[in-house]
C-alpha cells in the first residue's frame, strides 16, 4: 500500500508538472495569481501599443497658411525649411504678397499667419474685428531698412533725412544727383521702391516721406530682388529694402550711411540696428497669428512654437537681428496660454 501510494503521488506530480498553470505556459503565478511571464509579455505588447499610440498622437500633419512681408520672408523661409525636417508631414510654404496683401488674406481667413514688417494698422484691426478673427502679434526680429546705390556710384558717402525727402517726394524737386548736393554729377536719378502693399514702403512713407506723396517716376515692386537688379543695372539708381537683401547682394551694391537724430552718419549693421543708433530706419518685424488656428490646429501650434524658439538664431543667419531672448520667452508663454498648453 505504501508503495502504491508513493507511485500514485509521483504520478499526480508528473501530471501537474506537465500541465503547468493550466495554460501551458509553465510560468510562475505572482501574488495576484497572474502569470508573471504572461504579465511580462502583456506589458511588452501594451508598451508597444502605447508607443504606437504616442507616435500616432505625436504625428502632426496638415498645412499652415502663411503670407505677407517680403522683408520677413527670408526669416520665415528659414523657419519653414528647418521646421519641415522635424515635421515632414506639415506643409508650410511662405507667400509673399507684401505686408498689406498678407493682411488682406489674413482678414479673409485664408491664412493662419501673416508676416509683417510694420505694426498692424487701425483699419486692419477693425476689419479683423468685423470678420470675428482674434489674433496675437509676436515680434520676430529687427531690421534696418537699407538705402543702396550702384557699386559704381562713388559720390554718395551719406544722406540726411532731408536729402532723402528731396529725392523721394513729389514736391522734393531733386531729379538729378546734383540737385541733392552740390558737386554731385548732374545725372538723372533712377528710383526703385518697394510696392505700396509692402510694409517697408509703409514704414518709409511714415518716417521719411511723412505721409506725403511719393514721386510718380518711381519703379515700384513687391519683389525685393527686382529692386536689387534695378540698382545693379543702373549707375544712377537708388533704392531701399530690408538689410538681409543688402547683405545677400553686398558685392554688387553700395550701402549708404544715414545721418541719425544725433547727427551721426551711421551704416546699418547688427550692432547699430540692435542698439537703435541706425535711426530712423531700424524697426521691429512681426508675425500675426490667428488665435483659433493656434488653439485648434496642432500643426499651427507646433509651427508657431518652433518659429518663436528659433527666430533669434535663424533671423541672424539670414542677415537680420534677433530680438532679446526675453521677448521670445514672453511670446512662447503667450502662445502656450492661447493654445491651452
Automatic annotation (TrEMBL):
Q: Which UniProt keywords apply?
A: Cell membrane, Lipoprotein, Membrane, Palmitate, Phosphate transport, Signal, Transport
Localization recorded for this chain is: Cell membrane
Q: How does this protein sit in the membrane?
A: Lipid-anchor
One family name in Pfam for this protein: PBP_like_2
Please state the protein's primary subcellular location: membrane
- Residues of the signal sequence? 1-20
Q: Name one GO biological process term.
A: phosphate ion transport
List the SUPFAM superfamilies hit by this protein, alphabetically.
Periplasmic binding protein-like II
In the UniProt record, does the keyword Isomerase occur? no
Q: Which GO terms describe its molecular function?
A: phosphate ion binding
- InterPro entries named in the record: PBP_domain (IPR024370), Phos-bd (IPR011862), Phosphate_ABC_transporter (IPR050811)
User: What are the annotated GO cellular component locations?
Assistant: plasma membrane
Bias (Acidic residues) ranges: 38-57
Residues annotated as domain PBP: 56-305
Q: Where is this region: Disordered?
A: 27-65
Assembly and partners?
The complex is composed of two ATP-binding proteins (PstB), two transmembrane proteins (PstC and PstA) and a solute-binding protein (PstS).
Q: What does this protein do?
A: Part of the ABC transporter complex PstSACB involved in phosphate import.
Task: Spell out the family assignment given in the record's similarity comment.
Answer: Belongs to the PstS family.
Q: Name the PANTHER family for this protein.
A: PERIPLASMIC PHOSPHATE BINDING COMPONENT OF PHOSPHATE ABC TRANSPORTER (PTHR30570), PHOSPHATE-BINDING PROTEIN PSTS (PTHR30570:SF1)
Q: What is this protein called?
A: Phosphate-binding protein
Lineage here is: Bacteria, Bacillati, Bacillota, Bacilli, Bacillales
